[in-house]
Amino acid sequence: MNKVCAIFGGSRGIGRAVAQKGYRLAIISRNLEMARAAAGDLGAHNTGNHLAFSCDVAKEHDVQNTFEEMKKHLGQVNFLVNAAGVNRDSLLVRTKTEDMISQLNTNLLGSMLTCKAAMRTMIQQGGSIVNVDIIIGLKGNSGQSVYSTSKGGLVGFSRALAKEVARKKIRVNVVAPGFVHTDMTKDLKEEELKNSIPLGRLKLFLLKLLRWHMQLCFF
């Protein structure tokens, strides 16, 4: 398959784990070396031409330049995955304004900017967008008011955008998994996580389930 899948936040965590076989992958991260390492590892296991790109999704010119580079080296983007995210957990009264802005810019504005850039080609050819949320964006969590806001906003944005572009044969989905073992959650206490889950245990197959769900979004 020669279709191109761009994964923002693809150098680690969920973004890297959900990379699909059979696509030409653009692995995008603020850290170019990490993106190159991920693209190289994926290239060793998957068929296709996988390239790495550096981008700060909170900066519109960075996003625009990245899409131009992807078009030049890989071709038009058919699928877009927004998995870039940051969190700085703290009670609101203790949260610095710059930390609020950083989370909102990366988690919400960043996805809006990448979707906007993708529209330029997808409007002509169709395509699919998957925005990666988290369950916290739906139910909130103490000490994560800003993070919850940024992720909750992503749900509303995805729903509205889906209605805007459906007639252009562009699908927009948002996935909101529970806690997944990534760098972002490695410092959380496992017992606290289990207490928030009805079954009282972490699901080790969650990433496989997430990959399957996202693959359905592509077709």
What layout of secondary structure does this protein have?
Blueprint: E1 4-8, H1 13-17, E2 24-29, H2 32-45, E3 51-54, H3 60-73, E4 77-82, H4 97-125, E5 127-132, H5 136-139, H6 145-165, E6 170-175, H7 190-195, H8 206-218
Parallel strand pairs: 1-2, 1-4, 2-3, 4-5, 5-6
How would you describe what is shown here?
The chain has one domain (4-218): 3-Layer(aba) Sandwich (Rossmann fold), CATH 3.40.50. It has helices at residues 13-17, 32-45, 60-73, 97-125, 136-139, 145-165, 190-195, 206-218; strands spanning 4-8, 24-29, 51-54, 77-82, 127-132, 170-175. The mean pLDDT is 82. The chain has a six-stranded parallel beta sheet, with helices on both faces. The protein has eight helices and six strands. The chain has 219 residues and is α/β, with parallel strands linked by helices. 38% of the residues are buried. Helix 1 links the parallel strand 1 (4-8) and strand 2. Helix 3 (60-73) runs parallel beside helix 4 (97-125) and helix 4 runs parallel beside helix 6.
